[in-house]
Each structure stands twice: as C-alpha cells, then as structure tokens.
Amino acid sequence: MILVTGATGNVGRHALEMLLGQGREVRAASRAPERATWPAGVRTVAADLADPASLATALAGVEAVFLFAVPGSGPDFVAAAEAAGVRRVVLLSSGAVDDEAEEQDGPIAAYHAEIEQALRGSDLEWTFLRPDVFAANTLMWAAQTKAGDVVRGAYADATAAPIHEADIAAVAVAALTEDGHAGEIYRLTGPQSLSHADQAEIIGEVLGRPITYQELPVETVRQAMSAHVPGAILDGILKAWADSVGRPALVTADVEKITGRTARSYRDWVSDHAAAF
Ligand SMILES: NC(=O)c1ccc[n+]([C@@H]2O[C@H](COP(=O)([O-])OP(=O)(O)OC[C@H]3O[C@@H](n4cnc5c(N)ncnc54)[C@H](OP(=O)(O)O)[C@@H]3O)[C@@H](O)[C@H]2O)c1
After folding, report:
1. Would you kindly state where each structural domain of the chain is located, as residue ranges?
2. Pseudo-torsion of CA 95, 101, 105, 109, nearest 10°?
3. Residue whose CA is at the smallest distance from ligand 1 atom 20
4. Which residue puts its alpha carbon closest to atom 38 of ligand 1?
5. pLDDT over 90 at 119, yes or no
6. pLDDT at position 194, please?
7. Residue 49 and residue 167: Cα distance in Å, rounded?
8. For the residues of 86-127, what is the DSSP string, one character each?
C-alpha cells in the first residue's frame, strides 16, 4: 500500500492518479477527505501531519509514503512511520535547501531541511525531491489575464525554470515504486530558464492574444501579496526574485534521468491550464 499525503495538492493529485493508473494499491490522505473530489474508487483517509495522533490509522499497512512537508512534522512522522513498519518515504522537499549552508537561508529552506534531517536520522529508505519554482505559481496571474492583457508584478526580469507539477509527480511515482532511489536527492526543474516577462508572453501566445508584463515597484507588490503570504515567506520569495534578475535559472536533467521523458515546457503547462487564465 502506498500512502499519498498532500493528495489534494498540485503534485499529490497527479501522483495519486499516476499510481492508480499503474494499478497500485493507494490510500489518499487529506485533513478533510470528505471535502475533496477524488478519482473514482480511491481509498481515502483523514490525516493531519501536524497531529501525530492521526497518523497511525493512515500509516497502517503502508509500505511507501509520498510525504508533503508540513513545518515541524518530521520527528513525529518518522516515529509514526517506523512504528507502522513503513519502508520507503519520498519527500516533496524544496530546491531552496542548501546542503553546504551552515544555516539555511530563510524559513522555507529551514523547515524542509529539518524534515530531511529527521528522515536522514531514521531507519526509513528516503528520497528527497527538491523542485525549484513550480509553473503553478503563475496561477497568481490568472485574475489579471482574465481581466485584461497585462500582468502586473515585481521584477519583469526575474528568472526561473518553471516545472510542471506532473513532472514532479512522475519522479515521485518512480521513487515510490522502483528500487534504486534510496538516499538519492533529485533537483527538479523545468527545461528552460524564462523571465517573468517571457512567461507572460507565453501565456499570451497560448491564449492567442498578446499579454505583457508590467513591472511594479517591489513595495507595491509586497503590500498586495502580504494579504495572502506570511511575512518571512514573502521576504524569501521577493529576495529569490531579486537575486535571479540577470542570471539564467538552473536547469537540471533529473526529470528526464528518472522518468525517461524530457521535462514538460512552460508552454505545455500553460496549455494544460489555459482555462484558468
Ligand atoms: N511552489 C513552489 O514554487 C515550490 C517550490 C519548491 C518546493 N515547493 C514545495 O512544494 C509543496 C507544495 O506542493 P503542492 O503545490 O503540491 O501543494 P498545494 O497544492 O499547495 O497543496 C497543499 C497540500 O498540503 C496538504 N496539507 C497542508 N497541511 C497539511 C497538514 N497539516 N497535514 C496533511 N496535509 C497537509 C493539503 O492537504 P489537505 O488540505 O487536503 O489536508 C494539500 O494537499 C510545499 O511543501 C512547497 O514548499 C513549492
């Protein structure tokens, strides 16, 4: 049995469907499974990674877990997984984690690194997926593309190699179901470095109307985003954008190496989500 946590999320939804498509025995976890829409026939379980008492039922009879990183949840998850006899854990970590750093740069890197540390110190077979920027982050522009032809935001020249969530899921499924991934760390990116302005242009090309990116002052963007994003996380996002300006984003071959397929392009991702824009 494979337990998929974060099964209602961008990546987990795809992992769940891919595993079901392979005919695997899968259990999908959510804090509120009754509120989600699930693929036909899937078995679900209520589990909150921030509530260790909820984990024993979710983990009973489970051999492998796709683990969503909930801040502070590492040690309790490891204890519950070892007690349940789980063998293998594939963690959805973050490309922000830096193995060389004495102290992680910001809270996003720090909480993912803490969960990695708990898994490293366990008897479990672990694999860490460290994706960089999700293409899905650009869904934050959808309200603007629905309302007009201009996307307004910070740093037109900030770069990323946006990754399709289905590619992260495909790597997760390989690591959950095949041998040879224990102790491996995969740095996952999309196939091409693109600026914010490039990404807006590609959305326009897919939608069939010109869309341009208009750069706003950082403080204006900070104020707008602070309604939805906690301060320390927001600082990290704005800093990452500022640091990337004028530097091509890292592009790795790990998606292709693990799945045998080239990583989907940002254009592919927009085509798959065109209705949202
Ligand atoms: N966005 C990026 O650019 C980026 C880059 C690198 C790494 N990441 C990492 O990728 C992850 C986001 O993945 P995603 O986009 O697939 O997720 P998502 O769409 O944001 O969905 C969040 C998921 O987390 C689950 N969840 C939240 N709190 C939980 C808890 N206490 N216990 C159990 N489940 C909980 C939710 O499940 P329910 O609500 O159903 O319980 C939901 O399935 C984050 O860890 C993020 O740091 C993101």
Report:
1. 2-131, 133-164+189-250+264-277
2. 40
3. 9
4. 30
5. yes
6. 98
7. 24
8. --EEEEE--TT--TT-SS-SSHHHHHHHHHHHHHHTSSSEEE
First CA to last CA distance, the chain = 37
| Whether the Cβ atoms of residue 89 and residue 126 lie closer than 8 Å to each other | yes
C-alpha 71 to ligand 1 mean position (Å): 11
Mutate to test the pocket of ligand 1, among 31, 42, 237 (most ligand atoms within 8 A of CB): 31
Q: Which residue type, as a one-letter code, is found at position 92? A: L
| pLDDT single digits (tens) 219-277 | 999 999 999 999 989 999 999 999 999 999 999 999 999 999 999 999 999 999 999 99
Ligand 1 midpoint to CA 9 (Å):
6
List CB contacts of 208: < 8 A, sequence separation 6 or more.
none
What are φ and ψ of residue 36, in 5° steps? -100, 160
Residue nearest to atom 28 of ligand 1 (CA): 70
The CATH class for the domain spanning 2-131 reads alpha beta
Output the CA 208–ligand 1 centroid distance in Å.
Answer: 32
With b for 16 or more beta-carbon neighbours within 10 A and e for fewer, the 145-182 pattern comes to beeeeebbbbbbebbbbbbbbbbbbbbbbbbbbeeebe
Asked if residues 85 and 104 have their Cβ atoms less than 8 Å apart, the reply is no
Burial label for 113, CB within 10 Å (0-12, 13-18, 19+), is buried
Tell me the CATH number of domain 133-164+189-250+264-277, given options 3.40.50.720, 3.40.50.2300, 2.60.60.30, 3.10.560.10. 3.40.50.720
Mapped onto helix, strand or coil, the DSSP state of residue 192 is coil
